[in-house]
Amino acid sequence: MSTFPKNRISSANSLWDVLSFAAGIAYTLAFAPFDLYLTVFPALAYLFWTCMPLTPKRGLLRGYLFGLGQFGLGVSWVYVSVHDYGGGGVFGSLLIAGLFVGFWSAFPAIAVYMTAKLPGKQSGRLIFYPLVWILIEYLRGKIVLEGFPWLQIAYSQLDAPLAGYIPLIGAYGTGLLGAVSAALLTGIFIRPKSALYLLIGIMSIWFGGGVLKTAEWTRPYGEPLKVTLIQGNISQDKKWLPETRVSTILQYIRMTEAHWDSQVIVWPESAVPAYLPDVYEPFLKPLHQSAKAHQADLIVSVPSYGDAEGEKYNSVITLGRNEGIYRKVHLLPFGEYMPWQPVSGWILEHFNLRLSHFTPGSADQPLLRAGGYPFITSICYEDAFSENALRGLQDAAYLVNATNDAWFGDSIEPHQHLQNARMRALETGRYLLRSTNTGVTAIVSPDGRILKQAPLFTTTALTGTIRPMTGLTPYAWIGDRPVVAFIAALLFLILLLTRSDKMRLFRIDEKCPI
After folding, report:
1. So which residues are the catalytic ones?
2. What is the pTM of this model?
3. What is the mean pLDDT of residues 119-147?
4. Which terminus of the chain is more solvent-facing, meaning fewer CB atoms within 10 Å of its CB: N or C?
């Protein structure tokens, strides 16, 4: 007999609500730097299990509490950024961090609410949950505020068997298989007599992923490249001070000159704390000539101006054998541009927060070249979005990401950010060079493994060897649309079946109060 109840609002329910908050925390422990990847599944299974019999209103509450646990821990670094480096006071920083957490916590709540609204006697909810969960992840990761894909299921699985699916069906397809695994785990408790078959289903998914991890979707071509990634470790509160500007640039130049034996040298985001016209002649032009003389290419992040008045870009330029410029396309909401004006502007002004205001670059920019090969460029937050890495990938030999995570201090954010960047390497089958100001600077292999990594908060140069890669993974060909279309079609089919009262996969015992 099933152990699921009809929802009753009673004192007993409060405990399940509190445990939903705890389950949200357990979910986040699957991600970096904790890396307990298995906790995603019992956390989601708990949420699916306790919310299956709920009314939509009660489900909305329980899903929201799960989200508060998930994002309360998972994006706690917002407070560090606003308070320690954005100039906000304690109260203002707590308020902004709380609003941020509260906003994104609504998405798990919406997933539970939508499932609870499924027509019929709670029929088919266990199939409905993983589908709607990933659909909501897609909306959160791609659509709302131009996307915030943090803490999505697949990112926690980069070192697990499910990672084998990523080059095939991407983060959302892999996330769907993870959510299905959690639903099957829930089914074991609903129907103990079917536990063996459900367990076989879970093991089949995981075994398939393990087999796929051995597949090689892309191949090396050309000669290996010796690369050096510069980690300057410049404190964010000193970086843009006029009195430290010259010493900062000279430090990067000295560290670069010690590695002219490398073919590609990468500086982190905004390594040059001044706009391009102000530093090109005295600093970058001589460096460009030195790089060319040493048969090297230098990849430098420096803000630049546009042609129109008021146009400012977060940019990466190449110096040496090849010259070019890339202007950041996918800007960071509330960090590089202000959505929801004038409300957001008033809040930041009221709390005296100092943020940048950049213009987005064009989506059809030509690829930069270094080491004799074109590469995909991303700046900071852009590495969280697959479309940025897929644009022009057929011609690209490797990926480069310039990041400055100094804004988040010694929090969990730099580790999560590296996890997001690793996903791009695995999706594309390309090496990734990731240069950061304070860490985590790393060289990532095409299968998503970290080959070399610099310690956090150290001034260092990370040197290694990569291979130019060619070919496309299946995911690079198809992108996310087929997975999203499949989910939408299956959800539509379930709705049709439940409305016709023909779907009776799981029946709910309405006697036990949760």
Report:
1. 269, 328, 380
2. 0.91
3. 85
4. N
